[in-house]
Amino acid sequence: MTDLAPAHRLWATRAVVFDTDGVITDTARVHAAAWKAAFDAHLRARAPRPAATPPSPRPPAPQDAPRPAAAPAGDPRFAPFDEVADYLRYVDGKSRLDGAAAFLAARGTAPSPATVRAVAAEKERLFTELLRERGVRTFPGTVRLVRALRGAGVPVAAVSASRHAREVLAAARVADLFDVCVDGDEAARLRLPGKPDPALFLEAARRLAVPPARCAVAEDALAGVEAGRRGGFGLVVGVDRAAGPTTGDALRRAGADLVVHDLAELLPAPREGVPS
Question: Which of 3, 19, 179, 240 does the annotation list as catalytic?
């Protein structure tokens, strides 16, 4: 059960801007896995080593065999990265550098710019590797909605803070469905700040030649939903892929006008048709 408003709330808009990872393509989990590997390696390297123990007078029993160093018990600074909670809170929807800086600062490590760049670069390497291994899948409900919008003459855009967005959309064979794509490369070229700043969405609306107030935004990230609200977009749709007890509420608090689990829920019923 969602708080879905009638479909005409979307269809009354003149353009729709879609986030890419987690909304169009099922790549948010790949990003989360890459972040976890990069962050956990960094935290393990920084964790204090256990104090040395005196030599044992006998060979160690199997249960006494040395184990890999772990985070000190109860020390939250070195707790492993959580692929759901930490991903949504600190990195989802943000640029790699902003996401790395936010998570490391939250862990109290006072990262230097060089450290942030190193962790972000490792995440980039891991993401590329995982993407080759796993491939790219789309969310069928989103593709159906995009095709329906295009069929009704509503222009659509794809937006992402990731520099891989065009590559991902092409690999998923949906790049040609979007009139406009504003990705991480474009953001860097134009020096656009990352979400929750609305600059990426506003640039997409500008290229579609539609005022933000007449555009809708579809986002699964809290930072992206906040960006849509701050940008003055006419409708902000939160996509709750986790379908957990708190994620929908968090999306609403961030500024979502309505929350759905699948964008196919916004397709008009056959008897309704598409509002003019």
Answer: 19
Report residue 85 as tokens. 């909670």
Taking residue 220's Cβ as centre, other Cβ atoms within 10 Å add up to 25
19 labelled catalytic: yes
Domain boundaries, the chain: 8-26+137-266, 29-134
Instruction: Give the Cα separation of 159 and 184 in Å (integer).
Output: 9
The answer for residues whose C-beta is within 8 angstroms of residue 190's C-beta and 6 or more apart is 203
pLDDT digits (tens, 9 = 90+) for 142-162: 999 999 999 999 999 999 988
Pure H helices in the chain: 8-11, 28-46, 85-86, 96-106, 113-134, 140-151, 165-171, 184-190, 199-208, 222-230, 247-254
Read off the DSSP letter of residue 25.
Answer: B
pTM of the model: 0.73
- Catalytic pick among 3, 21, 64, 240: 21
Kindly report, residue by residue over 228-263, the tens digit of the pLDDT.
Answer: 999 999 999 999 987 666 788 999 999 999 999 999
DSSP state of 262: S
204 Cβ contact partners less than 8 Å away, ≥ 6 residues apart: 17, 157, 159, 180, 182
- 249 catalytic per annotation: no
- 2 or 46: which carries more pLDDT confidence? 46
**8-26+137-266: in CATH 3.40.50.1000:** yes
SS3 call for 31 = helix
Sheet containing strand 156-159, strands side by side: 180-182, 156-159, 15-19, 215-219, 235-239, 258-260
